[in-house]
Write a structure and sequence with these properties.
Distance between the termini: 60 Å
Structural class: mainly beta
Number of strands: 3
Protein name: IS1 family transposase
Order of helices and strands: EEE
Largest sheet: 3 strands, antiparallel
Organism: Streptomyces changanensis
Radius of gyration: 20 Å
Bound molecules: zinc ion
InterPro entries: FdhE-like_sf
Strand content: 15-25%
Length: 54
């Protein structure tokens, strides 16, 4: 009998981290930081030109 006991639990991480694939609408740079606002909203700030949007 071939006992298949090598199949362990799939413990590998499928999603490393939700990375934001955003680009600044002002300068087109991909150096965009995600900032959480006080109202629960999310604001994006370009670290290249300083442009912020949401
Ligand atoms: Zn920018």
């Amino acid at each position: 009998m071939a006992a298949r006991s090598n199949e362990g639990p799939a413990a590998r991480l499928a999603t490393p981290k939700a990375r934001t694939a955003l680009s600044c609408p002002a300068c087109g740079s991909a150096d965009v930081a995600q900032v959480l606002g006080d109202n629960g909203g999310v604001t994006y700030v370009c670290t290249s030109c300083g442009h912020s949007w949401s």
